[in-house]
Amino acid sequence: MSITVNPIPENERGSCPKELAFGAAFADHMFTQLYDDGLGWHDAVIGRFHDLKLSPAAAVLHYGQEIFEGMKAYRRPDGKVSFFRPDANIKRFNRSAARMVMPEVDEAVHLEALEKLISLDQKWVPSEPGSSLYIRPTMIATSPKLGLGAAKAYMHFIITSPVGPYFKEGLNPVSVYISDKYRRAVVGGVGEAKTGGNYAASLLVSEDVASKGYTQVLWLDAVEGRYAEEVGAMNVCFVYGGERVVTPSLSGSILPGITRDSVLKLAPHIGFEVEEARLDVNTILADIKAGKITEVFGCGTAAVISPIGRLCFKGEDYIINDNKAGPVAKKLYDSLTGIQYGTAEDPFNWVHVID
Ligand SMILES: *Cc1c(COP(=O)(O)O)cnc(C)c1O
Q: What domains can be seen in the chain, in order of their start residue?
């Protein structure tokens, strides 16, 4: 199957805004392809960014049969544009699809769609330090039917949005509330899939912690309410003694982040030990108090590395590294973004430059 490319006329194209709010402006083009049972994927097109036409009975609107991905295109010093580990996003998209009983997308077609779309909208990839073109591949169930069951028709689309640096003045630590009340995901549920419902379910707790003066929530496991899982929509790492990076092992209810995986591979390369473990919140807090844990940070595509300066549990605050970004977070941030932006060597062959 080939992708039809219908570029819009040059004089109808927009331009990248100077001030970039996250996910608020969209590039000129988008990719779409359709799936019907019996027919498979068809009508793969790159064309003008447009509103979708859907039946109000479309399954996605009622039962949330939906998945998405989040990745970025980076401007390199030589002006070329690249992806970071796109194969990992493409594979995770299909794992999410399988969990939500949605059809998988051919990996080669998905990559070709990404390459052709971003190549066409090259000028939307900003070049200011720390900025990038955020890419959102999505799949929705479009069958118009209210009966519960997997849909028979789907749409896969990709839209892109230029984003500025997450941290404008260096790495700024965030304050995180450890929720004793709300849970994100349960083993056997859909926490491992990037599916919309997980995020809808987290909105209430986001409002709750914001009203308490915190910007993110740290999720504990849903069975015992005891083991650290994730921070907001990021994975979480704890640094012991300034040299050992420990992250919760993938429990079945943790989203397997590509940034998390990259930290686990990159950290030993730049002189840190790594470990995946089950982390009891009481141990974590005691180790912060005792000074054994020297840094805590979240990791994900949007922020890359997000230092955590303050954790609150049951009304008590725990300050980490004087509420400042620590050396391990900084070094990981610099090393990872160096690879992503093409200013540092790429020892793991993670970078995929678009021709
Ligand atoms: C996307 C996401 C992450 C981070 O994954 P990356 O591949 O590193 O961007 C972590 N947790 C949740 C819940 C997520 O949705």
A: 4-163 (3.30.470.10), 174-341 (3.20.10.10)
